[in-house]
Design a protein that fits this description.
Elements lengths: L4 H4 L8 H19 L6 E8 L6 E7 L2 E4 L10 E2 L5 H7 L2 E2 L1 H4 L7 E2 L3 H10 L3 H7 L31 E9 L4 E10 L18 E10 L9 E2 L3 H12 L2
Antiparallel strand pairs: 1-2, 2-3, 4-5, 6-10, 7-8, 8-9
């Protein structure tokens, strides 16, 4: 596996020696753990109940991280459903602006930063492989379905369109007005958007994954990661603090 893959999805703003050094330390820790027998496969699946509203979520342990395997549905100010339909929230989760997203995860879970997203992508084989391995096996436009190899089950749901992409907030800020998100999807011609039947030759055939920056008042999905691996979390936060 190419260890440079983790850097390809990190935000490139304000990169300095401390950031690079601490990122290398994170990679070293990951390599040591991998040598001890972690092959990045699914280790554990279970359900968790959000005590705030009783919602039940599937979760999955991928490598050394435990993720929600569904989009968050917790109702709060500055969150919404697609077309304001409750049935859409049940299926696709809610969409949050950044200020709501950073406070949306239940106790014991948190909104991931860009390093945590990057470590997930590294575990899933790097961005080229992860772009398909993290996607659900149905719902994507054209030939855009993924393999869902790790059980992450990213569904093609954006606040304004369905079928071609997903955007998940990161806690990492670019500046006072913008923050980073993981953008996952597939390329398709305009007549394929919204899950419509595509004309032959215009199906979604190319998968993509990258860290993008969005206005904080944009509405994106939320996936929470569990507070459990304190050694990794410490290194991840150091990279964030010294970015």
């Amino acid at each position: 596996m190419n260890k440079s893959a983790v850097f390809n999805v990190l935000p490139t703003h304000r990169v300095n020696c401390c950031h690079v050094l601490l990122s290398c330390v994170c990679l070293l820790v990951l390599a040591v753990l991998a040598a001890c027998g972690d092959d990045g496969s699914i280790k554990e699946n279970f359900e968790m109940v959000d005590a705030r509203d009783g919602q039940t979520y599937k979760t999955v342990k991928i490598g050394w991280q435990t993720w929600m395997a569904e989009n968050l549905k917790f109702k709060m100010d500055s969150s919404s459903c697609y077309k304001d339909a409750d049935s859409s929230c049940t299926k696709f989760g809610r969409f949050y602006n950044w200020d709501a997203a950073i406070a949306a995860c239940p106790m014991g879970w948190h909104l991931p930063d860009s390093v945590e997203w990057s470590m997930l992508i590294y575990t899933a084989g790097g961005k080229d492989s992860a772009s398909k391995a993290l996607k659900s096996t149905k719902g994507w436009s054209g030939q855009g379905n993924g393999t869902d190899k790790f059980g992450f089950s990213a569904i093609p749901a954006k606040a304004s369109i369905f079928g071609v992409g997903s955007e998940f907030w990161s806690v990492t800020e670019k500046d006072s007005a913008r923050s980073y998100s993981l953008d996952l999807g597939c390329f398709a011609s305009l007549d394929c958007h919204g899950g419509d039947i595509c004309s032959p030759g215009k199906e979604c055939t190319s998968h993509y994954l990258f860290m993008d920056d969005n206005r904080k008042d944009s509405r994106n999905s939320v996936r929470c990661v569990k507070d459990e691996f304190f050694v990794y979390a410490a290194f991840a936060k150091l990279v964030y603090w010294f970015r």
